[in-house]
User: Fold these one by one.
Assistant:
Number 1:
Amino acid sequence: MRIIIAGAGDVGTHLAKLLSRENMEISLIDEDRDKLGALDTNYDLLTKVGSPTSLRDLKDIGVNGVDLFIAVTPLESVNMTSCLIANSLGAKRTLARIDNYEYLLDENRSFFENLGLNHLIYPEVLAAREITESLRTNWMRYNLKLSSGNLELCVVKVREGAPMLYKRFSSGYFSHGKYRVVAIKRMGETIIPRGNDQIETDDLVFIVCKRENRNYILEHANKNIHEIKNIIIFGGSRIAQKAIQQMPSDIKIKLIEPDRDRCYALSERLTNAMIINGNGNDMEFLKEEGIEDADAFIALTDNTETNIFACLAAKRFGVRKTIAEVENLDYIPMAEGLDIGTVLNKKTITASYIYQMLLDRVDVRNVQNLTTADAQIVEFVAADGSDVTKNKVRDLNLPADTNIGALVRAGVGILVNGDTQIMKDDVVVVFCKSHVIRKLEKYFK
């Protein structure tokens, strides 16, 4: 598969790095030579200094016949224009990063399709949805619906005293059929559990279950649900604005923003939040604004370090649910080690969406690139006569770093164990390390 990415900013660079590992032919174009320098020498991809809206530059990089043209520069107008030009020059599919929510409305989809814009992505809207979902499932670090809601992935941090601690998987403790542990994150390492493995204190545990069986996870992980009615948000970013617009009207929201002029603009735009000019890293200021009574604290400034320290301060005041936007990928393991709560990253959210575009075939339903682990959740459809249908799961000889968590058969979610026999047309939920996904495809064809 051949892909061209326009824009070597944070999102474009991260995508180029990810996709270059997937045995694809990746080209990256940007007007800034300095942004392309390190990528050209360290990754297997082609770079070109040029304008994404130049016909000559797009022709030179080979846009004619390209499988997917992705435009993720900081400017919406550049992204849309470059996609329109790429489509006219023979690109098979296009995807543009945008910042106008109106373009995402269902009634406008066919309009953009007819223009040659096949896919539109607004990372800030996707991040806002993750925030609202995280608040709804506040006892988890992360929650993800699988297979159109038939199943879900729950990520929980397990503290001392939880019944599931120190039980070897070979002991039979996890053979109850109510949920399935598919991975463990420990000290920055993602572990696909085997018989002799066990869950230890402060592990992040990735669990697949049916929604009605969440209570078993609550009990075994020793978790409690707490009601969220008072929220403090630090940083009036676009993510913050979109999240506030999605929140229920009965939640009290305070939005702290250091920039006075921005506060005036936000007060006109957001009617369901109290806008306060101040510094969310100032402990005395937070105390004056009622941090001790807050049920959740969300740090969404443009500075990763500021967000991390703000959440640490909120934790010190006893806030049970904290969410931090951590856009520097190198900081994510540190943020998890500091126990700041849920980590949000636009790059990985965008990457997950685009992976779905790349694997939009009959045998792959969905791909989710996880922020909290070096892994992906992939939903494969088992073809008639495929290798995955020929033996029980325990005898499939799947690649290392792979765990089949569940499947959906005729619309019904089923947890998988070693004795499970996969059948044709089953939607199979696989948890795997990022480098394994291409190896897995052959098992389902």
Number 2:
Amino acid sequence: METQESRGSIRRMGEYCVEQICPSVYAIDDDQDESMYLVCGSERALMIDTGSNAAPLMPLIRSLYTGPVELALTHAHFDHMYHCDEFSAVSLHQEDVAAWKKLLRPVVWISTVGSGRKAKHYPVERWQPLKEGDLLPLGGRELRVIHARGHTPGSVIFADEADRLLFTGDAFGSGSYAWMWMPGCSCLSEYRQSLRALREKLRPYQDYIMLGGHRRQGLLPNADPNAHPLTFAVVEDMEKLCEKILDGSCPCQTKERNFGLMTYTYRYGQAAIVLRKNKLR
């Protein structure tokens, strides 16, 4: 393994900001507040998500790690997968692969065009399918796949036991709210059931550091008065929030339009969720 050592500060590197979380893990943030992570082993590195910055990602990766690099996605949304074409090996949960043509590809296309990016072809049917419990070996360390259905059918969390880290994607937000209003997101009752199962799966990791798909939302100080770091309590509060919305005891706090569609925000404890009315079931 060859890495560039620099700890304890956030560095601007071209169009990205880089922070070395620990000796073998880098957090990379783009200008859209999208977060991705490079986890380095003795044999290969794993890139988790890619963001959607206009600038290519691989030159930055090569400045940090010179060995083989593979890509694993927390889920199939535009802001997490735009630079997939820079990688020869890509992994995605099998349920997102199955949902790609009918549900996820149209969402990715609309998001891409709406963000002013050039649309790309994603050959997901040829990617390595992931499933619950899979291990991704990197040499001297491995990441475990935890299925977290909800934000997409195949959303996953990657657990790094070597450094006690959880890469959570958008499974329950990144410190401000979880977007559950888009096509392909579970309805509220299904999400509550998934969170109940996820809570038990994450219990052995409840003291791990959680790194979300938009980590700046949870870094303090923050302009968002509701921002907070991701913790296991967020998962517990998100499950309770779903229950309270469904039983009518938690009213909507704010409403706004996202991509022209009316959405509603609900909060409880450290959790917040953004929904459309068609998900309130």
Number 3:
Amino acid sequence: MKKETLDYITQIYQSENIIINPTAYFYDMSIVKKNIGELEKSLPLQTKLYYAMKANSNEQLMLEIRKLNYIQGIEIASVGELEQAMKYYCGKDIIFTGPGKTDHELEQAIINDIRFINVESMTEAVRINNIVKNLGSKPVDILLRINLNYSVIDGVENMSGYSTKMGIDEEVYIDHYKAISRLEGINIKGIHAFAASGVLDYQTLLDVDRYIFDFANKLQHEVGNIDIIDFGGGLGIDYTNENRRFDVKQYGKELSGMIRQYNLSEKEIIMELGTYIVGNAGYYTAEIIDIKKIKGKKHIIIAGGVNHMGLPLEMRRKHPVRIIPMHKPKLHPGQIGVCKEIVDISGPLCIVSDKLSWDEYIDLAEIGDIVVYLQSGAYCYGEGMHEFLMHMPPAEIVLT
């Protein structure tokens, strides 16, 4: 969080001449640029950075990201994302990831000549091969995803080391790799090995990378040279008030040494990052509509809830909270506020589970004040249930 950004948002709300939506997302491009600058300085030279647009697909934000040279391209996960990504990037700058791609999605990816499809299964590979035959197109470059025998302890969401829908099981991966490599419509360029997201300890991620490099060398011994190793994402941000930071500088330094150690300096390393790029650049704001005391506990009710921001409920993840005082007059003599109390903060939906914060200490809050949720740039707006009860959607404002 930048104090200057929060101060600027406060000025916007407290200005008598500006009236905005009772809920809004603000995205600070100066923070995005700083995050990408840190990556550019720190990651090994052969690293190619792709923006994972599932984190935040706001059109103005995407336009601003397109201007940043270090971003190689876009990682997508649906035909809808493909259509939007094509507004900003050409096909050769796009990677298509994710399980359960339909024939239509695969066909559109092939027609638009995207750089890679990250293939998740033998079935998906056969589908691609059949589409190539039907279209009479050239062979498709792919990365073949593996579900590693490695479980990450520190990740917010783990995708390997146990039974998930992601990738091909490590036990059968080499056999599948050999079989898929014989399909005439496919060129396997390397491996995709996304193990976990939301990792804050850089050493944890280095341990994963070391396992991947060990496997890559084993794979090359069995099938011959591979050109590309795609780590997926993994770099996390802190959603508490502890201000922990992923040490990208030290991570990059030690990863570069590891690459030399494994004699992989000629390989292209791909990283697909979303949260680390935009997560801490976002601020969700909502007006306090009511404050109630029910059975001994106070509840702050704001103009937007899980309809605008779904992950606090889904992941039981609380974002840091700030209050912008608006100094509005009381509506009636018995109106209550909050003063140095533990409260729940809920949205306006007709479900009890509509909470963005629970057991949250609030120093001071009144009806009409603005609640600000920090770290709201990734998987927030897009994770909302915007059609549920059809409340006014939040405004989205990009600060450039």
